[in-house]
Design a protein that fits this description.
Elements: E1 2-9, H1 41-44, E2 50-57, H2 62-100, E3 101-103, E4 109-111, H3 113-118, H4 122-133, H5 142-164, E5 186-190, E6 193-196, H6 197-208, H7 239-251, E7 257-260, E8 263-267, H8 269-272, H9 281-291, H10 294-301, E9 305-310
């Protein structure tokens, strides 16, 4: 006799249930062993509803089976409730990015700060940053850590702009009397350590992980001159593909490189952080060539040199 209990979970996080194999001998009752694999919220945000099947085999005592099924239900419901509470701020923030970001001229992603401000969506951003600050990135894989810190940086940047909106440039939001922006403000606490935006970008992302050049295509400083604010969350599972695409999008936009005959005017990012791109103009050109589209590739191959830098600090709205 085989008995099935089907439980439908409507949550962004779906546990994976594995059935235990038989032990040695032939025990009178075989019960299912539930193994729950919970991915990072960003990886799990796109999961859909699916039934969870709890199987019991060789049932000999009805009361034992009923008890086991009730315990299975309680365990799944408890896990479901916990995951729903976890998923809520992640899903709400992911929806906000999708709904408030649109594509503008030259491939620029524009964020509708005015609509988000008027709709009170600062609360959505704050709930997400609070959730992230309660996590332990040290327990994650390296790619998940990188995604975590980039998501936290971008959400904290949105938060500080919405807290001070309307503002024409993030540089108008000061950390102190002589500051040129909010980057040295205390922004969050992770694992008991108070962090600023500068700490996250320069002391963590650029120093702790390989390929610091990619960091610049992941973090967004709410400015037109910056690489795009993505309309989805960064995840460890798709990190390599997504950040390479982000680099390609920026480098082949006029914000990244302008072709002016036999010279190139490039983003000031390649000057401010030239060490991340090889430390020289020739190494920067190699980096640009790696992601260049046909026109830029042809210009670089024909001998175009870097001559000038530009950056637009106006709000990306």
């Amino acid at each position: 006799m085989r008995s099935f209990t089907v439980l439908t979970l409507s949550t962004a996080f779906m546990p994976v249930v594995a059935f235990a194999g038989a032990d040695c001998g032939n025990p009178p009752l075989k019960t299912a062993e539930a193994v729950y694999t919970i991915k990072t919220p960003e990886q799990a945000a796109s999961r859909i509803e699916a039934p969870v099947v709890v199987e019991t085999q060789n049932v000999q005592t009805v009361d034992v089976v009923k008890t086991a099924q009730v315990e299975d239900v309680k365990m799944v419901e408890k896990t479901q409730d916990k995951m729903m509470k976890t998923a809520a701020p992640v899903a709400a923030y992911a929806d906000l990015l999708k709904n408030r970001i649109s594509r503008g001229e030259g491939g620029l992603n524009l964020f509708d700060y005015e609509a988000a401000h008027n709709a009170g969506e600062l609360a959505t951003v704050t709930a997400y940053t609070d959730y992230l600050s309660s996590q332990n990135p040290d327990a994650m894989s390296e790619n998940d850590q990188i995604a975590y810190w980039a998501n936290l940086y971008n959400a904290l940047t949105l938060k500080v702009v919405l807290e001070n909106y309307p503002v024409k440039s993030i540089r108008k939001i000061k950390s102190g009397l002589l500051s040129i922006g909010p980057w040295d403000r205390d922004a969050t606490v992770v694992n008991g350590e108070t962090l600023t935006l500068n700490n996250i970008e320069h002391d963590i992302l650029r120093k702790k992980y390989p390929n610091p050049s990619y960091v610049h295509y992941m973090v967004n400083c709410a400015s037109i001159g910056c690489p795009n604010l993505a309309d989805k969350l960064w995840t460890g599972a798709t990190l390599e593909t997504d950040r390479e695409q982000a680099a390609r999008d920026f480098i082949n936009s006029p914000r990244g490189v302008k072709i002016k005959g036999d010279t190139l005017e490039v983003s000031s990012i390649y000057q401010w952080f030239k060490g991340d791109f090889g430390g020289s103009k020739s190494e920067t050109l190699k980096h640009l060539r790696e992601f260049a589209g046909p026109d830029l590739a042809a210009a670089i191959d024909a001998g175009a040199k870097i001559d000038g830098h530009d950056y637009n600090w106006s709000l990306n709205q």
